[in-house]
Every structure is written in structure tokens, then in C-alpha cells.
Please model this.
Amino acid sequence: HDIWEIDPTELELFEELGRGQFGSVKRGKWRKNKSVAVKMMQQGMMNEDDFIDEAKTMKMLQHENLVQLYGVCSKQRPIYIVIEYMKHGSLLNYLKRQRGVILKKPNKLLDMCLQVCRAMKYLESQSFIHRDLAARNCLVGDNLVVKVGDFGLARYVLDDEYTSSSGTKFPIKWAPPEVLGYTRFSSKSDVWAFGVLMWEIFTGGDMPYGKIKNQEVVEQVVHHGKRLEKPQACPGEVYDIMMVCWEKDERNRPGFAVLENKLANLSDDDYCS
Ligand SMILES: Cn1cc(-c2ccnc(-n3ncc4cc(C(C)(C)C)cc(F)c4c3=O)c2CO)cc(Nc2ccncn2)c1=O
Model:
């Protein structure tokens, strides 16, 4: 019996938490006492066999700032992906809802960046690339803990509009030049996306580059070196960290361990008190 296989009769399903591109997600209870979120993966959206094979590896990825994968119900269609429940939902929605309050607390904003950075430092240490790090793919739980979710799932999406860097659903505004040009993903491309996520946090969930169209963003960022502007609520020292995440050459971007030190030093000082 595979340890990552969950018996669906041990799941109780409640209200829908959201409808992602890949199906719906419901709040649930596993074995009467464990709060979970159950993704019912819409058929045809994902390469399910490859995902189920990878699930055992993803289940081994455990960190206090990663949304824990508990297992899958793969003996049925649609398959269920059973993960840790996060009661405040996506970080993007949380930022937008709380914008008026948290933009006045830069130390809280910096703490959110640090939590995401720690999860990414852990994934980097496991040579695991997220490929779609953004505030919409992070979740907020009890005591305002922030966790990175849906890591690695991008590899199993079948929709070319999402997987091709010229597709309409590709996350252009979170992608570095080497991904836009050559689809070269690495932990350093996750670092670029982390810089954009920091900008999302310090703007209270604004859309990067506003209404500028995706293809115009590619032109401006790749060919004219344009970068996101410093958010009003963002101290200069924090903006400097975002900017180094957006170095054109990925070799000049810091890894997540270095980023964690930089952010931790700022949160110790009173820059963001
Ligand atoms: C674990 N979890 C997941 C969700 C939830 C709901 C709907 N869609 C999603 N998402 N969001 C994003 C997402 C992204 C992907 C990529 C392949 C990376 C593109 C693949 C997915 F499969 C999802 C997904 O399913 C989630 C994220 O997986 C909501 C929770 N919680 C709440 C609580 C209150 N209100 C709303 N949501 C929760 O605890």
C-alpha cells in the first residue's frame, strides 16, 4: 500500500475554497480530525500519471513555510490532491483585503517576505524549482503564517497556453529574461519571481507593471532593462534586495540563503520598525 495514497472514504468534503485553473478545491477533514484542502483535478488539465509518480517526492518536501502535501487519491478520476488547509486563503487575496492595514506595518510585510524566502531556501537546498512563485500561489494560515503552495505542479500542466513562454496564461510578469528567451528555469529564476513577490507584498497586492500588456513587459524588461518601481511603503534597503533579484544575468542574483541573511539583518535593524 503506497504511503502517499489516501483512502477517499476517510475524507469528508465541505465548502468550496476556490476554483483554480485546474479544478476546484474544497475544505475537508481527513480521518475526522485533520483539516485539509482537497484539489479535485479537472481531467485533461494535468499529466496525472507523471504527477502521481512525483507525488511521493513532493510528500517528502516538508518545511513550516511549505503547504504540506498529505497524499493523493489516485485510484479514481478525477484524482484528489490532499494538502494542508490554510484558513486565510491565497496571499494575494489576503494582501488586497488587508492592504489599508498592513501597508502601515513594514515589519509585518518584511516578515512575510522572510517566511517565503525560508521556504524557497529549503526548496533550493533540495534542488527543487517552484516555476510559478507568486503571491497568488502562496497561502496564509493561522497566526498569519505564510506558506508556499502548488510548488512544482507547473511541470504537469498540459495547457500549452500556460507552459509555453509565449502562451496567454504564462506568468510573464514573474519570469526573468532567460526564461522568457530560452525557458531556462532554475532556482535563480525562482529568485527573480521572489523579487516580484516581494514587490507584490510591499504594494498590497498590486499587479506588476499595471495594465502594460505581457508582450510590452517582455520588450521593456528584457530589451530596455526596465524594472518595477519602488513601492511607496517599501524602505530603500528592501528595494535594493528586490533589485538584486532582478539582475539580468542569473549568476549575479543571490541564492535564497543569501537573501534570507539580507532580509533577516533588515528585520533585526529598525529599518522596518
Ligand atoms: C490549501 N489550500 C488551497 C486553496 C486553493 C483554492 C483554489 N485554487 C488553488 N490553486 N491555486 C493556484 C494553483 C496553481 C497551480 C499552478 C500549476 C502552480 C499554476 C496549480 C493549482 F492546482 C493551483 C490551485 O489549485 C488553491 C491553492 O492550492 C485554498 C485554500 N484555502 C482557502 C481558505 C479560505 N478561502 C480560500 N482558500 C487552501 O487551504
Summary: Residues 17-18, 20-22, 25, 37, 39, 67, 83, 85-87, 89, 132, 137, 139, 149-150, 153-154, 157 surround 6XL (CB under 6 Å).
